[in-house]
């Protein structure tokens, strides 16, 4: 952003000289110097509307009062915010509002934190000249989660504008006119939207409130804990509000965290998971085939004894561990230290293996960083954005908001390569904002990327300095894409060569360009290769290494990035440093004062293979659920049943925990402290909001207790102590909170890649995916993330279940017509592996030939899926398959 | 479906505006002409044509009083109740119509023939009290005239007392001039 000249103006507010950036609104300039001008309709995130007139001020030489929310500062301007005239104006506007606003503050959930109350209190009106009957709207049911009380509405339209300008959902309609304007959805229909909770948060009064906590509290009873949401990699700061250890509500104050106060349905309505009645309260132990309640002492002693005897008999290679990347960095760190030092094995892996590792490996290979080289701010200020396989609204909603802001407010050019197509729906669709869009087949994102690179080469957009610097690299890639016929690319992508060339030009011509890669790419075969090829695109167009430019793989789970950095994946030590890197090993061994195990790491799928083969006999599983995640074809259950000891640390009795010999109740994120590292590499504090449920304990504490019993104590008094150790070992953990200093690409690694590194797989990466044309009548089934859930965890959140409580197959209208299926019909899905029945949703955004099913309800679907591990990264791919769909 | 029936007309409307959304009012007008009111399915279809959400169409329909959200009778009687007409007895006129039709403003007779509305100025202030029935004006109304108009409309579907908008100066005066 250094290319913008900063112009300032000086003005006087209430007699104090102020310097503000040119273009600043008077209300903001006043706020910056500590003067709060009362307002309802103004909000820093929204365009000025100036409809409430509350923010009027006196400006010298202007005959009438001016709305400070829509007046930009000017040189020499003299503003007065607290004169008799202004105060009189405020009073009369409040009088008008209170002519209709009911005085039901005692039963209003906003009472105590209401702008109207505060401003009324300031101007102390005790009487009203209005004797007319107050306006009364007929009470209408609005939605299962959001309540409207329109009599309280001050008609500032913040909710409507937020829904449009920020969320791009446009679900709210101010219906009617004048005093009788009320906020509705569509006619008499109940609200159907993204349920981001933005309208609830932005309402200055109690007109729109959350039904999840209706009438349960008064704001001053609530205890607040600022922590980080656990439902995706965006790492939004949330404030969990509790009353007597009971979860009441979640919100996020404006300007807070990486999300700037914006949330998604998972963050806003998904908080009841922690206090779900099914939470494990006590340790369980298997006796006579059944899991029965036991004490911590007995459970831990049993584990320790069994471990010691098995270790004596089979050595440490008979042990392995899996951990979920939902855990805190402290849990992850202690877990790998436990496995490496106490057990003595490197056979451990985490759920970052499911896809995030592909992005990290590509980044490491090409530019030597394991993190993004950009931050959210760079997305917002980019001139061109390329989204590949992200489905960003549903997977990483808040990163999606940054993209929306870049496009809608700053005019960035958006290029999307997505397995969805532009269509207006009840949730926003990022492809609607795209200037160039390629509807890619979910297994062929790579082909579209090759089309873009061919466009770059043929349009002569290759950076001349790169051609000088690395002639062989440019030559090899140019020749490789020249060999790809446009006809084949057009057939594979469904886009014309001219469209792809235009998209390539738009991307290459932008001064600052950012690429976001999503699960569609990272969790599909060749994920690491396609990400590498996208880095080629950045290199070729000369964007790579430029400030504000970069490639960003989107993490699915809240701490995927942390799991990699803590060394809880098969190939990495904390850092992450390569498992075989002698210098790293010595450094860590020096700190731990102990030699590291020499055995190679094993990935998730390899560990399961080893268990099935009987070489792994003991498995520690922390929050991970391979049986409930992998398709039946992975035979995870069979593998786990062969183990001699399976220990699970879990919140709930999952499919995996149900097979365990010992189940230890763990704390959820709301009950512990620590840190999460979000997708952009920000380390943020997780703070305890409630007391642990039942006898549950934080994961690190359980592992620490076990280590003592196993005769190799790794003890910490509190998570802060673990963080201290992490800090001494891993860079980037010194500063917590939003302080975006992204790393720079390592020039030596980039040079190595350009000289030699690229060559090893350039032929395989630069060939079109082998034709997997589906058979006539078959559809490509995509098991994808839904906006309303995250993994299986959120399916225990009562708020989110109101929004989506079962899976349904989303089809394109044309396919539905062809199959004679209408919304709500039952269909049978079948392929060689099995069959299942489900109901159908007809959705315009699903491209023809595809059928999308939410992964959160995939119990049945997993029967139909095959699984194949990536030859290089071992990431298991199982998200797409071919199915026959018939009406039943 | 509107788009199937009026493809060319709709395309012509869309071609008038650089921003697609601007075609909203002409399309709503088209929908209302088709059914007498703007139905939910019409709002959804228009939303689809203009790439808006149904809510965005709905809010516009509710803002304009001339767009009806409910089915109306065959004859939509809109009585001017603005100042000029009120001075010459629009209240009595509305009262008379209410008594004759047995309905109140914003209601429709059970035979679905008449819907009664009161509206703001119809720019016929020189000839009040007046009302508009569908596209026609009826001016300088008296109770007898109203009875005849209602009877004619019921019987013939039209009435010879109708006058185009802008009857001023009055017909007899125009004749004198000639």
Q: How would you portray this structure in words?
A:
With 888 residues, chain A is α/β, with parallel strands linked by helices. Chain A has 4 domains: 8-82, Roll (Ubiquitin-like (UB roll)), CATH 3.10.20.740; 284-352 and 559-729, Rossmann fold (3-Layer(aba) Sandwich), CATH 3.40.50.740; 356-553, 3-Layer(aba) Sandwich (Dimethylsulfoxide Reductase, domain 2); 778-887, Barwin-like endoglucanases. Helices cover 31% and strands 18% of the residues of chain A. Chain A has 30 helices and 36 strands. In chain A, the strands form 10 sheets. Chain A has a 7-stranded mixed sheet, with helices on both faces. A 6-stranded mixed β-barrel of chain A has the order 29-33-30-32-31-36. A 5-stranded mixed sheet of chain A has the order 2-1-5-3-4, sandwiched between helices. In chain A, β27 (674-677) and β28 (683-686) form a beta hairpin. The longest helix of chain A has 19 residues, at 296-314. Chain B has helices spanning 2-5, 7-15, 24-35, 40-50, 54-63, 83-87, 90-101, 143-156, 171-177; strands at residues 75-80, 107-108, 114-119, 131-133, 136-138. The longest helix of chain B has 14 residues, at 143-156. In chain B, α3 runs antiparallel to α4. Chain B has 2 domains: 2-63, NADH-quinone oxidoreductase subunit E (Arc Repressor Mutant, subunit A), CATH 1.10.10; 75-167, Glutaredoxin (3-Layer(aba) Sandwich). In chain B, strands 2-3-1-4-5 form a 5-stranded mixed sheet, covered by helices on one side. By secondary structure, chain B is of the alpha+beta class. Classes of the chains: A alpha/beta (888), B alpha+beta (178). The A-B interface holds A 169-177, 184-187, 424, 432 and B 40, 43, 47-48, 51-56, 58-59, 62-63, 69.
